[in-house]
Amino acid sequence: MKNEKSIVAVVAAISSFLTPFMSTALNLALPSIGTEFSADTILLSWLVTSFLLASSALLLPFGRIADIIGRKRILLNGLLIFGLSSLMGIFSGSINHLILLRILQGIGSAMIFGTAIAILTSVYPLNERGKALGINIATVYIGLSLGPFLGGILTHYFGWRSIFLFSGITGIITYLIAKRFVLNEWCDAKGETFDYFGSITYIISLLFLVYGFITFTSGGSIFILASLLFGSIFIHREHKTENPILNIKLLTNNLAFSMSNLAALLNYGATYAVAFLISFYLQSLRGFSAQDAGLILLAQPLVQAIFSPITGKLSDKVEPRTLASLGMGITCIGLVLFSFIKLDTSIYQIILNLVLLGFGFALFSSPNTNAIMSSVERKFAGVASAMLATVRILGQMTSMAIITVLIAFYVGNNPISAEFSPLFLQGITASFKVSAILCLFGIFASLARKNIRNQN
User: How far apart are CA 456 and CA 230, in angstroms?
Assistant: First the structure.
């Protein structure tokens, strides 16, 4: 049993590393891909958009399927699809072919993130769960940290296709390890039916919602309205059907689950755009190179990777609600401090504040994940894992939509130049102020939930 727990932890960790690594590494390679395929910015953006659409829309359905037919089975298929589609990227002959493969990667990613944390929860008891989840979350941040660094090296020396080769080989090796050494299967909702109509309405709703966020400044609000329509149909359906893909009672009757997910949504909505804003500030307003800006930004994910296992283990002993709320408070302080950033702010001060944000997020993320996964019955573990991943994506989209609107409000169509630096700085500081307010609401959402140990 002990060996199986260790193997599951390793498989889940590598699986969770793959997607953030691929996404951040690919961002560095976009200019090279654009040059090779003579692709414009819009086509290149679809390399990111197509992946987000596929993964976000399919997370919850795959989480539910995993609860019914087996979490290991869905994880294996996800690793295989992600690995093979990555390897096929080596032979891409056009940008359209590459976009299609990114859709397949998104499907594989939905299978992975809808099951990896659920399997960890199934294997580790309540008093060891936080540590395991903390290590898993640390690998996500390691992927985010290594992506720009290793992706830059691979692209520079071996070309952008080497990123797909590295991800593909890693995915296939992880698949083989899991297939050979993970012996048990977990399907706590076995025998229950799958709600196809509910899944279709949910997928359509999520597709419209995510695309609406992505195109928010160019008429995307109509897609958000369409998303609300299909979302209403979905909720009505889930109330009526005997075996829904999302049991609405998890949101209405389980305060720990609903408030923990709301806290995660607000936290990601408040913090995801920090890297974009500081990168923009350093390169466009302060004249730093992309490499130097990237090194400065590494401070935050590195601190998150170091402290996530520690805070996760701590949440096995201290109530996750307390730790997560404290982490949200520290994050809020960091965002407030960044709202006073100026053109002559010390780089050391920026790095220290990134460290503060990284610690705050580490203190929030692992305990909050532990709270979510420990607040539901085992038969809902796949759905809970998928729900958390979906909330993360929606929070990220919300964060980017907010700063896009604010930057456009303050700057308009003015070019990035020294003449308009004060306007850009106003947009950046306003974005941090709004993010801090979101984070403040997140503190109240985090405090509003029940104690997990009392519930269990």
Answer: 35
CA distances from 357 to 62, 305, 320, 360 (A): 32, 12, 19, 5
Flag whether the pTM goes above 0.85: no
* Higher pLDDT pick, 379 / 331: 331
Q: Is 87 exposed, middle or buried (0-12, 13-18, 19+ CB in 10 A)?
A: middle
What CATH number has the domain spanning 1-180?
1.20.1250.20
Q: Where are the domains of the chain?
A: 1-180, 195-244, 249-449
Q: Tokens 């706590």 map to which residue? A: 188
Tokens of 154: 């691979």
For the stretch 1-52, pLDDT in tens is: 557 788 888 999 999 899 888 888 887 787 788 888 988 767 887 888 788 8
Phi, psi of 184 (to 5 degrees): -85, 165
Contacts (Cβ under 8 Å, ≥6 apart) of 193: 242, 243
For the 249-449 domain, the top CATH level (class) is mainly alpha
